[in-house]
Automatic annotation (TrEMBL):
Protein name: F-box domain-containing protein
Cited Gene3D superfamilies: 1.20.1280.50
Pfam families: F-box (PF00646), FBO_C (PF19270)
Keyword Transcription regulation: no
Keyword Zinc-finger among UniProt keywords: no
Domain of life: Eukaryota
Domain F-box: 98-148
The species this protein was found in: Pachysolen tannophilus NRRL Y-2460
């Protein structure tokens, strides 16, 4: 395991900005074992699984995403598999225990699932994965998907003209026909912004530093620069945005409507609109007075399993409020925003 140890030394060097030393260790580790990076990632994943579940009152409240082998999962025909569970029953492993949910009629179980979907969507998913019968009820019947659509789409902020032109109303029963009258298709295919968490963009780039006085080094040191962009959307059409070098663990709890009372960070408030195609326009104040800053983003899927959880850049503009002239920022270094669910946000959306 010498290669892994050397690689970890490189990681620690990189974290403190000593890129030249880090690269040297990475090269040495790869000479010892060409698959050392895979070993390191496997080690980090194993360690992450041993971390206790975060609580609402804990310092770190961002949920860890479930890590799956998505290539293998993508090979499964989920609809076909779930259809085979139609006649399954809930079996009690320990027959000595009194029957509980197994004696409930399907309609009651579906009401429980709708309630879970409303208060904590991942709980509905976990409940549905308990056995074959619950999987069929949870994922193949339209009740829960309809509930999710009514909990989600009426709060998407469309410009009035766009909504009128495209027939978008608060009543989702009038829109589901576009999706073959399938609530499942509607929820999976129609882009939407999520409110129970935060979108984070992590940008890393390297910059050549200067030599210290009296240094005899042949090359200049390489430093890694890291900064974060945060976006938190609200159902009332407002959005909070922040650009900082501070990591999520210290920032995420402070991004709320009372941010002025909790932090001195330069959080900017703006407004957001979505289009039927899933394009997002964010207009806000910024660090320069008399200018309007406009981020244009597009909702994307991170993968087949992770729907609508990525915001990719279209462009980033700023407008002189006096002349109304538009200018454009260079976004070559910018990275997409990725959504992270935050448990403590559910009461402030």
């Amino acid at each position: 395991m010498e290669a892994l140890t050397v690689f970890q030394v490189g990681v620690s060097k990189e974290m403190v900005g000593k890129m030249s030393d880090a690269i040297e260790n990475y090269r040495k580790a790869e000479k010892l074992d060409k698959d050392v990076e895979k070993l390191y990632r496997a080690k980090i994943y194993a360690e992450s699984q041993s971390v206790p579940e975060n609580s609402k009152d804990g310092e770190i409240i961002i949920e860890k995403p479930i890590v799956l082998n998505e290539k293998e999962v993508a090979k499964i025909d989920a609809k076909k598999l779930l259809s085979t569970f139609k006649n399954s029953q809930i079996l009690i492993k320990n027959q000595e225990l009194p029957p509980t949910i197994s004696i409930l009629p399907d309609d009651v179980i579906l009401l429980i699932m709708e309630y879970l979907a409303e208060i904590d969507t991942p709980s509905w998913i976990q409940f549905s994965l308990c056995c074959k019968k619950l999987s069929h009820l949870g994922f193949c019947t339209s009740d829960v998907w309809r509930k999710l659509c009514f909990l989600t789409f009426p709060y998407q902020n469309y410009e009035p003209e766009v909504a009128a032109l495209n027939g978008i109303t608060k009543n989702q029963d009038k829109i589901v026909g576009i999706y073959d009258n399938s609530w499942y298709n509607m929820y999976r295919q129609r882009p939407f912004i999520k409110f129970n968490g935060i979108y984070i963009s992590i940008v890393n780039y390297y910059r050549e530093g200067g030599k210290s006085e009296g240094s005899s080094a042949w090359t200049n040191p390489i430093r890694m620069i890291t900064y974060y962009r945060y976006l938190r959307f609200y159902k009332d059409g407002s959005v909070l945005k922040l650009l900082t070098s501070d990591e999520p663990t210290s920032i995420v709890p402070k991004i709320n409507k009372n941010w002025k009372e909790q932090t001195n960070l330069k959080v900017y408030k703006g407004t957001w609109y979505i289009t039927p195609e899933g394009n997002i326009s964010i207009k806000s104040e910024g660090s320069v007075k008399n200018y309007l800053f406009i981020e244009n983003l597009s909702i994307k899927n991170s993968s087949k399993l992770r729907k609508h959880n990525k915001l990719s850049w279209i462009n980033y503009e700023f407008m002189d409020n006096e002349t109304t002239e538009l200018y454009e920022f260079d976004i070559k270094k910018e990275k997409p925003y990725i959504f992270s669910r935050v448990k403590s946000y559910k009461d402030d959306i």
